[in-house]
Design brief:
single chain, 340 residues, alpha+beta, 13-stranded mixed β-sheet, 10 helices
């Protein structure tokens, strides 16, 4: 949805449909319309519990491999979308005590419009959790950014590692944006990832038939839609570091990366991320989200900006239900506030 107020590739059809098929959620797709024209949508689920507590609520549906919770909303219709969503939650909430919206970017027009709408309705809400992760946003050229981000000593060490790695065989880098060979690329990525610590911990994509199926279909769908960028660092033809970016102008999302732990002393993941700085040179890309955990030790060596995301809980329904919701917000966030 290129006319979206804020990009979220995880809600685009090529990514959302494989997720729904793989994980079979009890979710419904809420679509807000104006004069018969859809202006935005968000998958919504009814939950009986909230982090171990028996607190029924409505929540934006997501899954562990979706790294943004922003609804897809047509640019210029942000306020109308939130009005529609909140009115529906008031009307159709059932036994739900509040509405929970995870992973909302805090610095964009969607959050600004939500704040304004909550204030206009005097509707209590709270940010119950915040997180920051590495992002890439700079007017510098890729090489200039790399020089500014890493000390001379670290850059020298990375050059040494690259040279030592190249002594072991034919070292090659490949960047692809077409759909040719995507299935084979996915095979190699899955094998590389499960061979490492994620495989040992059971958290690799191929550790579950559901996550593997989602990954394969999402990659193929992104490639067919022209939204996939694949980076591969190989040694003698065998991949030792791989990365998949979702291209969603004006942003990009560094979806998944894996490396061969047998070559960890050469920092192949960092070498590949240096090549990934080429995102800064793309005219249609203003920023890139690392999709990494907060304080990730590898990516934060290079990507120096931060993207903040918030988990927002909002009171819904009539006065009694809103009072209950406010008490829950107060218990979780420390205080109930008008707006967020």
């Amino acid at each position: 949805m290129r006319e979206a107020s804020e990009p979220n590739p995880f809600l685009e059809s090529w990514c959302l449909v494989p997720a729904l098929d793989a994980f079979h959620p009890d979710a419904a797709l809420l679509i807000v319309e104006v004069a018969g024209m859809p202006i935005g949508f968000l998958p919504i689920a009814r939950r009986a519990g909230y982090y171990g507590y028996p607190l029924p609520h409505l929540a934006a549906w997501s899954h562990d491999n979706a790294f943004c919770g922003a609804p897809l909303v047509r640019r210029g219709h942000e306020a109308t979308f939130w009005q529609g969503l909140l009115a529906w939650a008031d009307r159709a909430g059932g036994t739900a005590l509040f509405l929970h919206l995870p992973q909302l970017p805090t610095d964009g027009p969607l959050m600004a419009a939500l704040r304004a709408e909550l204030a206009a309705q005097s509707r209590p809400a709270a940010v119950v959790q915040r997180c920051e992760r590495a992002m890439l946003r700079s007017h510098l050229a890729p090489e200039d950014y790399f020089t500014a981000a890493m000390s001379g000593k670290k850059r020298k060490e990375l050059r040494r590692q690259h040279a030592r790695l190249a002594e072991l065989g034919a070292l090659a880098f490949e960047r692809r944006e077409d759909a040719t060979g995507v299935d084979q690329w996915a095979d190699r990525f899955l094998a590389l990832e499960i061979a490492g610590w994620k495989g040992r911990e059971g958290s690799a994509l191929a550790s579950s038939a559901q996550t593997e199926a989602f990954f394969r279909r999402a990659l193929a769908g992104a490639a067919d839609a022209g939204r996939l960028e694949r980076l591969t660092l190989s040694l003698d033809g065998a991949p030792i570091a791989m990365l998949a970016n979702f291209i969603a102008p004006p942003g990009a999302f560094s979806f998944k990366t894996a490396y061969d732990e047998n070559y960890a002393r050469f920092s192949p993941g960092v070498l590949l991320q240096r090549a990934n700085l080429a995102l800064l040179g793309r005219a249609e890309i203003a920023w890139a989200d690392s999709c990494a955990a907060a304080d990730h030790p590898m990516i934060e060596r290079i990507w120096r900006e931060k993207r903040e995301l918030a988990h927002v809980s909002i009171t819904i329904g009539g006065p009694v239900r809103r009072a209950i919701g406010m008490a829950i917000l107060r218990a979780e966030a420390g205080k109930a506030r008008e707006g967020i």
